[in-house]
Amino acid sequence: MASVLTLEKISALRGSVNLIGSKSLTNRALLLSALSSGTTVLRNILRSDDSKVMLAALRSLGVKVEENPADPTEVTVTGVGGVFQVNSTKEQPLELFLGNAGTAMRPLCAALALSSGCFKLTGEPRMYERPIGILVEALRSLGAQIEYLGHEGYPPLLITGCGKALGSETSASTSAEPRVVEVAGNTSSQFITALLMVGSLLPYPLELRVKGELISKPYVHLTCELLKRFGITVENRDFRSFMLHPATLCSPQRYLVEGDASGATYFLAGAAVAGEVNVYGVGKDSLQGDSKFIEVLAQMGAHTEVGPDYLKVSAAAQLHGLTIDLNDMPDAAMTLVPLALFTDSPIKITNIASWRVKETDRINAMATEMAKLGCTVETGHDYIKVNGRTPECLARKQQGQVPVFATYNDHRMAMCMALTALDRTIAIEDPDCCKKTFPDFFERLAAVTVR
């Protein structure tokens, strides 16, 4: 039976938070280090369920990963200098369990399609509900052999790697005619990211063309910028197409992972309601799109400051509601929902259809949990609107009702709903689900809590 955490009413958040490493950067950097020539020392990596499955997968693939016994956030990765070479067959494939980590499943699917060996990619039940068909079809168009072991378009997968000669009988050439692959951009940016991360390993130039509008563009920008650190230049044509040429991933020798900008949003949003918080490890030069969340808080009336390696927010006299398109930062967008309890008008977040294929259907989950507070909630295919200034909301608070929030095995649901403790005492089921990306979130929240 899952545990339940009771959070007594919080008066304010006040103090400083040193951020854990970014999940998005950690898993990307781990895989790129593994595929590179040379040895890479990665510092400030995130130690969480998502990075745990990536590290375990890389070790199973024969990658040498050494942990610093004096610092668990530092690892040294000796790259294989190209694709993975594993002596496994279709009859006895190498099985890799990837939990519910999209940042492991999607890029590894692409990397293994180019590798030698046979691989079975499995995960948690929710992973089998998260689509991967768009990526599989793109890889198949390059000659990859990928089979669905369950429902069409979803993991688990059986991948028979094609080696470096994937889709070509010729040796690598930057002057060869580029292969063109079209990828739908409206479901997950991770499909484009996966192809970008391994595209230079192909023996011919690769042009990725985006069909429709690409969602979550900052995450793709992050991938392109990280590839630069590993010696790969991606020609980004306004996020409508991308060009890569054959090249060798080269270790930068040392790489410091930025603090987690998504994790920062909870502390910054809480401070916008009451108090003042500095978060360290992410600032004005951050690669992460979620670092721009502080600008949304400024629009709502909070006092903000952006430094070279820190973000600072202090409370507004009154937070204002707004209608805002947050397609570029879907994870950070979730943090706005509980703020509807404190704004002078409703909050409406649009263009977030990707919420429905995350760790849970986040639109439905948020609507269900916010309704427990007495809020009125309106949802559609790609939006949510929450009004926290309703008579029912006030009545439930005055009656001393303690809502118990379900978390759906979704780390962000737990962290978002924790912010409602700034309004009243609450309870959160299965707080350990935060281990996916932020294992000590509630300890860090307690450290800046004022009651």
UniProtKB/TrEMBL annotation:
Q: Where in the cell is it found?
A: Cytoplasm
Which pathway features in its UniProt record? Metabolic intermediate biosynthesis; chorismate biosynthesis; chorismate from D-erythrose 4-phosphate and phosphoenolpyruvate: step 6/7
Q: Name the enzyme's class.
A: transferase
User: Which biological process annotations from GO are given for this protein?
Assistant: amino acid biosynthetic process; aromatic amino acid family biosynthetic process; chorismate biosynthetic process
Q: Name one GO molecular function term.
A: 3-phosphoshikimate 1-carboxyvinyltransferase activity
Instruction: List ligand-binding residues for phosphoenolpyruvate.
Output: K23, G102, R130, Q190, R362, R412, K436
What keywords would UniProt list here?
Amino-acid biosynthesis, Aromatic amino acid biosynthesis, Cytoplasm, Transferase
Q: What job does this protein perform?
A: Catalyzes the transfer of the enolpyruvyl moiety of phosphoenolpyruvate (PEP) to the 5-hydroxyl of shikimate-3-phosphate (S3P) to produce enolpyruvyl shikimate-3-phosphate and inorganic phosphate.
Among NCBIfam families, the record links this protein to:
aroA
* Name under which the protein is recorded: 3-phosphoshikimate 1-carboxyvinyltransferase
Task: Record the organism.
Answer: Candidatus Anaerobiospirillum pullistercoris
